[in-house]
UniProtKB/TrEMBL annotation:
MF GO annotations: 3-hydroxyacyl-CoA dehydratase activity; isomerase activity; oxidoreductase activity
Chief place where the protein resides: other
Protein name: Peroxisomal multifunctional enzyme type 2
Organism in which the protein naturally occurs: Azumapecten farreri (Farrer's scallop)
GO biological process: fatty acid beta-oxidation
Annotated PROSITE patterns: ADH_SHORT
């Protein structure tokens, strides 16, 4: 049997511990080794009178059984004094049970100001005062447990208890925020709504029920929630007679009752009322980021106008045990219009890493450039909204939590080069919904036409809904555009490029405002340590790489693009694209250089005609968002924040500077110090992860900026051994650090 839950060495403060539930908590904590502060003002249950007797009796009872306890007679409104008793007598405070409470029941019309204020002062302000006094001590010791007491009257309302209900629901709000703010310091806070016979409930319950609902059938929950082994926080429980149940919020799927070009009317609300209040496919929101995320989706859906009754009714008709695939395939929303200008085209180019550092930037970043054109992967942008509508409206029988959505694969086919501006119209359909076990894959086909009604492009979005599998559906579909397979031979060519730490923040301005890519709390709900890069952003990087290596940046040559998103990329990570030429097709695969993980797999670009072999074979690119003199800071930061990512750079880098064939200077850096301290000193042979040897032939040019690390490397003037990519960054560093 697991060890009993003990509180030896812990100091527990129970307010209102002179009677009823509070007394029971105090006795039970003391019996299990805690030192207990028994707080009680000594008044009656209406808050009248004061005295020391109630607390003293409980303290004596604890002491008579060999326990440790001390009395405190202050009002909970004097939280500092209450907590001070714990600190003075036992030197610390670990657990606070905000139990003290009184009643001033009156029907609403008869509640006086005093009845209202007194109830709020004791229940809500009292819990605030005592918790605030204990808070800094709990945070400092990195351990604390707070249990707040609410009531069924607070949760559901109760006749004659408007003042009490309001204060008690306020206590729940207080708890929820304390749970969030305390998380970092292992301070956990939960709320209970006990159903027990007490001096207070005697006024609202029949005597035989009061007798049956004993405090000892509530207390064990309080002790468990207060124990260091319990991870629960921010939760609400009803408890009584030995029964415990957890409560949570539930929300209907809801419905948008207005469109972008019309006012919202009461009639629209009336007409949608069934959908507003329909709990079929309901949802249980858990944080205030979730409603915020949904609001963003609502704004996007506004353009679609009021909900289509047909979708709602088909959803209601489904069994709820999984998607109704046949009904989904009938989905035919009204076409979507997308108007854009050269500005959007250039913003997209920046979003997928185009930079003025590259000589060919005029192609994508300057509308006055001779060959100004649209990166072919931009074709996903006009179609994006159609895909999002499918996800936010859900599939019949399948309500989708946006935090569980990942982009699985993308296929794009171009019938003509994307125009640099215009209004395009897209028709959306659901090709299939597949059961992949760990998730459901939703295949969304979107055809896009120009003003002349000529087809410009076709997109297939493959959206992976994590955790929605196992519904008994088909695993594969003929409608799916399958990924390719990278050849087993060494890549014919590769390009390496570091994304910006702000890459997702930039890319989302192109249209995909999914909070997963910017909001840490939202990303955490999807199970990520931080916001991840849009799959379509990496897709754009890969497209640029292949187009540069094999298409001479000529956007008219590209026919189709496909890739699978195999692993997420974090903004700031480096994308390494390996490429293989196979006739008209260039296969590609991207890795996250820092981790070695494949992030885009099975990728290919089909060209209209077989491309020429790559001019620069295996040429490394030093394309970084970082200013050279910030590189050391960046590496230092990574070493600190993401040690797993920089295992290889945790030791020493060494720079040999030679003049006339002889070593003129040796610099080393440990790469651990933010700011990147460079130490001059003796070479640490054998210890360096990487060595750069720079000869006097090129060093001067590098310092003055005529030659950068990449060029020097390409010309063979800069010799780099060891971790190539980091060495490239360091090579780049030499371009501007003239103070070296
Ligand atoms: C509100 C508006 C919403 C808007 C929509 C969202 C748009 C964007 O904002 C969202 C994004 O950009 S997310 C970022 C880009 N995507 C990613 O990072 C996903 C990375 N991939 C993964 O994590 C896993 O592959 C993962 C999790 C997808 C699958 O991993 P596993 O569960 O481990 O799967 P596995 O066991 O390897 O394979 C099971 C079956 O699934 C198929 N499969 C695997 N990866 C797939 C993928 N990426 N796409 C499609 N299918 C995939 C496997 O082939 C296997 O099926 P089968 O056995 O039939 O071959």
């Amino acid at each position: 049997m697991a060890a009993p839950l003990r509180f030896d060495g812990k100091v527990v403060l129970v307010t209102g511990a002179g009677n009823g539930l509070g007394r029971q908590y105090a006795l039970d904590f003391a019996e299990r080794g805690a030192s207990v502060v028994v707080n009680d003002l000594g008044g009656n249950f209406k808050g009248e009178g004061a005295g020391t007797r109630a607390a003293d009796v409980v303290v004596n009872e604890i002491k008579s059984k060999g326990g440790k306890a001390v009395a405190n007679y202050n009002s909970v409104e004097e939280g500092e004094k209450v907590v001070q008793t714990a600190l003075e007598n036992f030197g610390r405070i670990d657990v606070v049970i905000n139990n003290a409470g009184i009643l001033r029941d009156r029907s609403f019309a008869r509640i006086s100001d005093t009845d209202w204020d007194l109830i709020h002062k004791v229940h809500l302000r009292g819990a605030f005062q005592v918790s605030r006094a204990a808070w800094p001590h709990m945070k400092k010791q990195n351990y604390g447990r707070i249990i707040n007491v609410t009531s069924a009257a607070g949760i559901y309302g109760n006749f004659g208890q408007a003042n009490y209900s309001a204060a008690k629901l306020g206590v729940l709000g207080l708890s929820n925020t304390l749970a969030i703010e305390g998380k970092k310091n292992n301070v956990k806070c939960n709320t209970i709504a006990p159903i027990a016979g007490s001096r207070m409930t005697e006024t609202v319950m029949p005597p035989d029920m009061v007798a049956a609902l004993k405090p000892e059938f509530v207390s064990p929950l309080v002790l468990y929630l207060s124990h260091e082994d319990c991870d629960e926080s921010g939760s609400l429980f009803e408890v009584g007679a030995g029964w415990i149940g957890k409560l949570r919020w539930e929300r209907t799927k809801g419905v948008v009752c207005r469109s972008s070009n019309s006012a919202m009317t009461p009639e629209a609300v009336r007409d949608n009322w069934d959908a507003v209040t329909d709990f079929t496919d309901s949802y249980t929101p858990r944080s205030n980021q979730e409603p915020a995320g949904i609001m963003m989706e609502v704004l996007r859906k506004i353009d679609q106008g009021p909900a289509k009754p047909s979708r709602a009714s088909s959803r209601a008709a489904s069994s709820g045990s999984g998607p109704d695939v046949e009904a989904a395939k009938q989905y035919k929303p009204k076409p979507i219009k997308f108007t854009y200008s050269a500005r959007d085209v250039m913003l997209y180019a920046l979003g997928v890493g185009s930079s003025t550092r590259a000589p060919d930037y005029l192609n994508f970043l300057y509308e006055g450039g001779e060959d100004f054109g649209v990166i072919p992967s931009f074709a996903v942008i006009p179609a994006q909204m159609g895909m999002e509508n499918v996800i936010t409206q859900g599939i019949p029988g399948m309500e989708i939590n946006p935090a569980k959505i990942l982009h699985g694969e993308q296929y794009v086919e171009l019938y003509k080069p994307m125009p640099t501006s215009g209004t395009l119209t897209s028709q959306v359909s659901i090709a299939d919904v597949l059961d992949k076990g760990s998730g459901a894959v939703i295949l969304i086909n979107i055809e896009t036409f120009d003003e002349k009604k000529e087809k410009v492009c076709f997109n297939q979005f493959n959206i992976f809904a994590v955790g929605y599998g196992k519904f008994g559906g088909n695993r594969n579909s003929e409608a799916a555009k399958a990924p390719g397979k990278a050849p087993s031979r060494k890549p014919d060519s590769f390009l390496v490029e570091t994304t910006s730490v702000d890459q997702a923040a930039l890319y989302r301005l192109c249209g995909d405002r999914n909070p997963l890519h910017i909001d840490p709390s939202f990303a955490a709900m999807g199970g990520f340590t931080k916001p991840i890069l849009h799959g379509l952003c990496s897709f754009g990087y890969a497209t640029r790489h292949v187009l540069k290596q094999y298409g001479n940046n000529d956007v008219t040559k590209v026919k189709a693009i496909k890739a699978r998103f195999a692993k997420p990329v974090l903004p700031g990570q480096t994308i390494h694209t390996d490429m293989w030429k196979e006739g008209n097709r260039v296969m590609f695969q991207c890795k996250v250089a820092e981790s070695g993980d494949v992030c885009l797999s099975g990728g290919y670009i089909d060209f209209h005609a077989a491309p020429a072999a790559s001019a620069t074979t295996a040429a490394p690119q030093v394309a970084t968002d970082l200013k050279s003199d910030l590189i050391f800071e960046e590496i230092g930061r990574r070493a600190k924040d993401e040690p797993a990512m920089v295992k290889k750079v945790n030791s020493v880098f060494q720079f040999n500077i030679t003049k006339g064939g002889k070593t003129a200077a040796v610099w080393t850096t440990d790469m651990k110090t933010p700011g990147g301290a460079i130490y001059k000193g003796e070479p640490k042979q054998g210890k360096a992860d990487c060595t750069l040897t720079i000869s006097d032939d090129n060093f001067g040019d590098m310092v003055t900026g005529k030659l950068n690390g990449q060029d020097a490397f390409m010309k063979g003037l800069l010799k780099i051994q060891g971790n190539l990519m980091l060495a490239q960054k360091l090579g780049e560093l030499f371009r501007t650090r003239s103070n070296l």
